Amino acid sequence: MYTITSDEIRTIFLEYFQKHNHKKIAESSVIPENDPTLLFINSGMAPLKNYFTGEEVPPASNLCNIQPCIRTIDIDEIGDRHHLTSFEMLGSWSFNNYFKEDAIKLAFELLTEGLKIPKEKLYATVFMGSKELNLEPDTESIEIWQKAGMDRSHIVPQPFEDNFWGPTAETGPCGPCTEVFYDTGEEYGEAYTEGGEFDTRKRYIEIWNAGVFMQLNKMSDGTYEPLKFKSVDTGAGLERLTMTLNKLNSVYEIDSLRPIVDIIKNQCTSLSPESDIPESKINILSDHLRTVTILLAAGAVPGNAGRGYIPRKLIRKCCTILAKYKVDNFNYKEVINKIIEHYNKYYGHFEKNRNQIFSVFNKEVEGYSAVLEEGTARIEKMCGGLTAISGKDAFVLVTSYGLPFDFIQEYAAEHGMTIDKEEYDNEIKHHKEISKIGLNEEGGNGSSLPALKGLAENFAKTGFTGYEELSCKAHIIGIIKDNAEAELAAANEQAIIITDKSCFYAESGGQIADTGTISAGNMQLEVTDVKKAEEVFFHFAKVISGEVRVDQAVDMIVDSERRTKIEANHSAVHLLQKALRIYLGESVKQAGSLVTDDRLRFDFQCDKKLEADVLDLIEATVNEYIRRDYVREVQETSYEQAVKEGALAFFSNKYSDVVRMVSFGEVSKELCGGTHIASTGKIGFCKIISEESAGRGIRRIVALTGSEAVRYVQEEIKLLNEIAAKLKTGKKQILSKLDTLGTKKEQPEEAAFTVMTKEQTAKSTLQSSKGTAYITREYPAMTDEVRDEAIRVAELIRGVVCFYSIVDDKVQITIAIDKELSKSCNANGVIKSALAYLDGKGGGSAYLARGSGNNAGGLKDMLEGFKTLF
Ligand code: ATP
Ligand code: MG
């Protein structure tokens, strides 16, 4: 029935780009990581943003993949031929490699040869330039399309609004783009003639943004400068390609959507035979349930604000449609199961999260049934018997009773009433900024920073005193309650409090906010969260007793025990960062961190999993720094001076003239606005509890400190004791006991021994020390610091360390051995064996030896040799 299936298109696309030297990369979750500016991943390039700015290095110059996307901006288009809220984007990219010429050629070839589209069916739009913005027309692309084989009459110049992309912020990379359209034929409208209207809503369907050509940098004064580092971003909609290539009327007829549409249609007609539910509504249900399933599979939780609002809105819309057409007892399960079955073929997390998807979905639908019931009663009460619903009433029904505006509109239509939509829109606009910062169900806040920013303009900056003190006297200068500014808040109410100064740390730089109390006389507020925007602090609080008023003089007290735990975790992050740099190299770059009172999380760029022994070393080093009890020092200085002193600074463009440098002895210096423990000894103990991937090229370490770390270790040991008791043996005998119980123990690799038996030199000088801990690692140069580090690490692991560097084909090595161990395993002996591979010379003491050799080619065998010796 289909001339080409969506599966075939997937394969043709990926194989084509891989054949043309593009590396296929994994897709990202639709919920963005570390990007608060984006609601959901809405294009293939969104998760790769840092590759375009140069902040991160891509794994290859040319990439491709298939990325699930969510476009909330298209919600109102749903029901037309070609817009979906969720779709899969076929993407290809080139960073600082090929540009317009190759991009257009690749696109044309794939479309006409790979996908066999007759070229008469294809049209390309190009940027026509803008005199006003002083931007040249993209004549280059016109020429390249023509050269590739496209007729000039099929190339359509379009204005800035249509064919110029970016930047995503005020400034940054941007450029013209060229988009490919498919002509779906005369039954869908007039043919395009040069200079006439190019109808992209019905007849000509955009299938591929075949090249966003990032070639300009928008400056803060609004001018554009050429970019040094050019790149190409392309994206094609899989559903639209499947639709057009099969000459279908809409995306709802394609192979992956048709079965969903059919299930919904069958159910609606059998559950409510009389109600004539239109096809457009069936399509909306299919689209929305698909998107909801994708979001829930990715871990989204419906809520009133931010990311949670979208699945809630979509689910409510589906319920409202079904209620309107009197389809009772709709079997969502059958539909969602079909969606899971489809997506699980490509993305394994759908099946894994099946239970979660259903439990969240069912709870939301049940909750909404209650809302609908109460809302219908309320609407009857407020508007029954009237001929019009005022904008204000509609606003109250939406915001206070959770009824979707569509529902109210339909109610009005059914009862022959009008709605004052203009008044409603004004109400919404008026309250928009404030309503965004409303408290959410969990008592936290659903505030988004842009919303707080708007509000911050109304208040003076808050003086932060929390570096020096944990309590202070202050004045209340603002209260926000029920989404509006208020003069007072009474017992049991929730409110946002703004004061002239504050000792509460507001969430920033990965450190969570302080909690505590604000009080005056019998009035007491419990502060649960603090956010800041434009230096104004917003304290999210609940009134426990009395009444809080603007202008009141208050005492602010931070929960000091909790603050100390947060500080211990934050300082441990700095020490961890230093230890990581020792073992993984100076290039370790922070990718994000989270510091709370019960744990710390540190994300950093690294391609591979850390070996368990390296992780042990890192943990041991952090604990040694803790024992050395370095005193915290804070210095305010210029950015340049701080960097000169070796401070770690990662996001250099974000620093102001005066920066805050936090140091612990000589081991750690970082630019940091967070709060820190007075001396490292107070951290007590740090335990790494996990190391895992946190996205492409990013590893995540989670660790505990102080009493949390102690408790964790105790629980682990308790578990071990219990296992030993179950096996009726001692802890240390568990493994041998398991062996005797028949568990297969891995044999040491024989292969390494065979390599080595040929290298008699190395073996003969040493007694066998199999089982000794050892580590080998390359450094840029063999400095005294590296030598000291080698001695320290050898003691830490009670083993053998070989650090080496290669400069101009010359290898330098340092061997350090734990002093106790060196009585039986001499560093002089080890280095002689090692140098035999390098044609080198050297020597030293029993625990430290150094040497160098000219045969860098022997290094690999030398490192292999280590494997067989220890
Ligand atoms: P349109 O103008 O048709 O909404 P767009 O310009 O927003 O498309 P791009 O942002 O360039 O689209 O996205 C690249 C490709 O992704 C498009 O060429 C199209 O094939 C696909 N696409 C975009 N939006 C949707 C959508 N809502 N549903 C399905 N596919 C889409
Ligand atoms: Mg669009």
Oligomeric state of the chains present here:
single chain
Q: Let me know the CATH homologous superfamily of the largest domain.
A: Bira Bifunctional Protein, Domain 2
N- to C-terminal distance: 65 Å
Secondary-structure arrangement, i.e. CATH architecture of the largest domain: 2-Layer Sandwich
Average residue pLDDT: 87
Strand content is 25-35%
Rounded radius of gyration (Å) = 32 Å
Stretches where pLDDT falls below 50 for ≥5 residues? 433-448, 743-768
Task: Give the biggest beta sheet.
Answer: 9 strands, mixed
Number of strands: 34
Classify the helix fraction into a percent range. 25-40%
Per CATH, the class of the largest domain reads Alpha Beta
The DSSP helix count reads 26
Q: Pairing-aware structural class of the strands and helices? A: alpha+beta
Using the coordinates shown, work out and report the CATH topology of the largest domain: BirA Bifunctional Protein, domain 2
Cofactor: Zn(2+)
Family: Belongs to the class-II aminoacyl-tRNA synthetase family.
Catalytic activity: tRNA(Ala) + L-alanine + ATP = L-alanyl-tRNA(Ala) + AMP + diphosphate
Keywords: Aminoacyl-tRNA synthetase, ATP-binding, Cytoplasm, Ligase, Metal-binding, Nucleotide-binding, Protein biosynthesis, RNA-binding, tRNA-binding, Zinc
